[in-house]
């Protein structure tokens, strides 16, 4: 509960700091000609983060900027592509690992590309671990991701019987395998930075 309250307050304070740092420009021709590329700063913790602000010809902010402005990761999370990832070393079974991630406003990590899988392997290697739960599971004849992403990219090292091994764990040095969901492993959570 304390973590959820902290996350909500963090999101609110960052949103307020952004609204305070972005100047409102009048919709005049002079402003449109003058401001096509600015830099604004947002203070996150004790660090200052600079984000380019793109403006349209009429002086209003570009839609792309509005989407990219909030692409930050909370402390303890690492950004790759458009998502944030957190490696959790405390071993848990797959269900409890997912519950932990949900309490962080995240889910066990889905994997959408070889580059993303390589990034997750790097997180496990830095933590000194060889395996970690990710968000894949077998349900009603199909492999799925717990975050509802499409299961299009696969990287199977071994595929065991799905009757006993219905949850996916990754390897820090090779592909993934399915294992017993009751096994206690470290795990990786993933979140969309725009979720708060």
TrEMBL record:
Coiled coil: none
Residue stretches making up the C-type lectin domain: 80-190
Residue intervals passing through the bilayer: none
Annotated PROSITE patterns: C_TYPE_LECTIN_1, C_TYPE_LECTIN_2
Signal peptide start-end: 1-19
Assigned keywords, A-Z: Signal
Presence of keyword Signal: yes
Highest taxon listed in the record's lineage: Eukaryota
A Pfam family it matches: Lectin_C
Protein's UniProt keywords contain Transmembrane helix: no
UniProt-listed InterPro entries: C-type_lectin-like, C-type_lectin/snaclec_domain, C-type_lectin_CS
Alphabetical list of PANTHER family matching this protein: MANNOSE, PHOSPHOLIPASE, LECTIN RECEPTOR RELATED
Protein's UniProt name: Ladderlectin-like
Organism the protein comes from: Clupea harengus
Gene encoding the protein: LOC122132225
